[in-house]
Specification:
111 residues; 45% helix
């Protein structure tokens, strides 16, 4: 499994939060915060857009408290695709906006 794949199937290195952090791009932080605030109906501020990936110690604020990540770690899964309950309501919150993540998890899911 690619180490840049988050538990939810998002490719961290393709994520705008990761790109904004690596490139130290404040414009991308702001546009990402605005977009995610609308999508997830939450107040996300540009200064919260700092992340080096789901599996790193430097994660985007909401990824630090992510129920998907916590569930996968608790179940000792590499990602949600390995779970017997996949897809569940927790991961569908992300997958509804990221069809490529759904396909990725389905492709590398339970064997």
């Amino acid at each position: 499994m690619d180490q840049m794949m988050a538990y939810c199937g998002v490719m961290c290195d393709k994520c705008p939060a990761y790109k904004a952090t690596v490139d130290n791009n404040d414009e991308l932080r702001k546009s990402t915060a605005d977009k995610w605030s609308k999508i997830y109906k939450n107040d996300i501020r540009p200064e919260q857009i700092n992340c080096l990936g789901c599996r790193s110690g430097n994660r985007f604020y909401y990824c630090q408290i992510c129920g998907i990540r916590a569930c996968s770690i608790e179940k000792e899964l590499a990602h949600c695709g390995e779970c017997n309950s996949f897809p569940c309501s927790k991961v569908n919150v992300v997958l509804d906006h990221m069809p490529s993540a759904r396909k990725r998890l389905e492709a590398c899911g339970k064997k």
